[in-house]
Amino acid sequence: MGLESYATEQTGCIPPQAEVPFGIALREPEAPYGPPKSRLLDQVRDAIRTRHMSYRTEEAYVHWIKRYIFFHHKRHPAEMGPPEITQFLTSLAVERHVSASTQNQALAALLFLYREVLGCDPGWLEGIVRAKRPRRLPVVLTRPEVTALLGALHGVKWIMAMLLYGAGLRLRECLRLRVKDVDFSRNEILVREGKGDKDRVTMLPASVKEPLAAHLVRVRRLHERDLAAGFGRVQLPDALARKYPNANREWGWQWVFPASKICRDPRFGEPQRFHVHESVLQKAIRAAAYRAQITKPVGPHTLRHGFATDLLAAGYDIRTVQELLGHKDVATTMIYTHVLNRGGRGVVSPADRL
Fold first, then answer.
1. Active site residue 96
2. What domains can you pick out in the chain, each with its CATH number?
3. Of the listed 27, 37, 301, 338, which one is catalytic?
4. Catalytic residue among 172, 195, 200, 249
5. Which one of 51, 71, 142, 259 is least enclosed by Cβ atoms within 10 Å?
6. Is residue 72 annotated as a catalytic residue, yes or no?
7. Tens-of-pLDDT digits for all 354 residues of the chain?
8. Which residues contact 337 (CB under 8 A, 6 or more apart)?
9. Considering 170, 192, 200, 338, which one is annotated as catalytic?
10. Can 338 be counted among the known catalytic residues?
11. What is the DSSP code (8-state) at residue 28?
């Protein structure tokens, strides 16, 4: 049986040319007429961007597809099928000991590759076993622990941590805030392009208004110095930079938490100032937890968990908390009812009645 007929029978995909070897470049063989096809990973990126999926998804999918190809000694995915996918996923679970969510993410990347990029018949993909994801409870800090943690932070890092805890922001949502999205008069924060590319409105904590306003005064002076030096540009979403050529220099579009240095990487076009990197706050919170002698595993998302549990403990409706958090399903929000200090359903322990 030839390679072409074998690949068709096993995977539903017909290799472009069976006699052309597939090397590390992963470039599809050129057609006799018309422009040459782009490389496989470039096709994956184009398919993801066409569907307006997030950049984090693009990074994850490309990463797993590359690992899949290298695991099978750089064979082209069109030559492989369910046995190779199962072998790769089994290796992740048995040899690499990855979690169920990580294994399912790798499977999602491969399903996207075969269905959306290679255009294979998805019928044989349905039989691939998915890992059973265990139900884990979030780590939640007590009020004294939150106070100690925030007390060990200072300056801009304290402001960012206060927004995570006081407004329920995710880390990237906080870092990607723009000046125009903070409404001091209405005490609101407009979260743009949150998880799932959804917008939502949450509160601006009163305790952080004055420090945040003072911080923005310093940021504006920094922006004015950048403009005077011929910089002052930021990235704009979608095609706004082409529609409004000067918008990327306007004050309202600037990052609330800009980076300390201007990026001159030619991959990003003109030199511009990005927002603070995620690792800045991650390292600061870990160091603060160590100084506060908190033994629980603490990260930026832990403060968001505290926002949810404290609102539920205060008696706020779970639907309200769901909207503030930006959860798609109320079942996701309900998990916080299991970690409340008064018990998952507000039940008082019989031992406390003695």
1. no
2. 3-125 (1.10.150.130), 143-338 (1.10.443.10)
3. 301
4. 195
5. 51
6. no
7. 444 443 444 444 544 433 333 333 444 444 444 445 568 999 999 999 888 888 889 999 999 999 999 999 999 998 888 889 989 998 998 888 888 889 999 999 999 999 899 988 656 666 666 777 777 788 899 999 999 999 999 999 999 999 999 999 999 999 999 999 999 999 999 999 888 788 999 999 999 999 999 999 999 999 999 999 989 888 888 778 788 888 889 999 999 999 988 887 666 678 888 999 999 999 999 999 999 999 999 999 999 999 999 998 888 888 988 899 998 888 888 888 777 655 445 556 666 665
8. 312, 318, 344, 345
9. 170
10. no
11. P
Identify whether 170 is a catalytic site residue.
yes
How many residues does the structure list for the chain?
Answer: 354
- Catalytic residue from among 176, 273, 304, 305: 304
Catalytic-role residue among 233, 273, 305, 327 = 327
DSSP category for residue 114: I
Question: Which one of 61, 114, 165, 336 is the catalytic residue?
Answer: 336
* 314: amino acid identity, one letter: A
User: Hey, how many other C-beta atoms are within 10 angstroms of the C-beta on 217?
Assistant: 9
pTM of the entire structure?
0.74
Tell me if residue 286 is catalytic: no
- Only one residue has tokens 């000991």, namely 97
> Does the annotation mark 178 as catalytic?
no
